Amino acid sequence: MNSMKDTLKETLPQPMVSFGKRVLNGYPSLIMSSLREARRFNKAYAKDSATGAEQLEARMVYFTHQIEKGLSHKQFRYGFGKKPLRNLSEVMARYRKANPDYETRVSYVSAMATVGEYVRRHAGHDADLRYVSSLFPPDLLRSAEWIGHKEGGSLSFSRDEKRRNSTLPFRQLNEHRHSIREFAETPITLAQLQPAIESAMRTPSVCNRQPTRVRVILNKDVIEKALSIQGGLNGYPTPPALILLTADNRVFMAPQEHNEGYTDAGLFGMNLLLALEAEGIGSCPLNTMFRKGPERATRALLGIPANESLVMYIAVGHFPEECTTCVSRRLPAEDIVTVIE
Question: Which segments constitute the Nitroreductase domain (predicted)?
């Protein structure tokens, strides 16, 4: 039995069918789709006033990561992170009330481990320790100091450990990859990056339309200006190179594909990160989800046309002799997998 849609297509004059398609696939359809997404997102995201355990856990992970970055900084600064520490203590207290099983959660244990490293690293700096003690319950601090370093905080590895990357099985390469934010001072060239970019070209995309566009920025002044707008590497040395991934929306064919560029370029980005790792090159992805002002400034600085969506930056450089980075503990797979039988 024909659907109503098929019946109309068969009975209406072709010009009227074509006009209907233009209306349904036009600007009103795009607006309505975006409004539906905005409503769903607004109800779900981890805003300041969120009370759900999932949102509170996300905020806890975010503040933990802020402190991990300070712990991994080459130029370690005693007493850093007072605001993130305060935010973390508050959200951990709220999370304990929202989730009775908080002690079993990887994110909570990671937060504890990070606080524990903070305390250990500040041994002898009584003023800073007093501040921490004013935020967290004494029993939490005692427990935190005994949690293993693999659960949260910082970790270190050497450049020599990366020399065999090209020979590692995929699973081992993937598990050993970590983002770094401080690179060797040695310049990096396009020729050194090209093999990784070419490898990432094997990334699948919707109907092979390949929307990803790659800009490799090697000019130090431009990199500094771009990262000043982005803000994610404040306090770190300028990386030798910065890659920007965008999605060219001209390859898409209907309003319902308006987010597809983020999916396709995101897939490309992950492949590129792993390809760089295989080449023995360090990297760190940085988001480009900007408000209007920073986006406009970024487009003007880098000459990004309106038909392209900003997807992500990747800071790139050679590994330094010794690297320290964030543990960034991952959830167990069973926490995110739903089986539909």
Answer: 176-226, 240-318
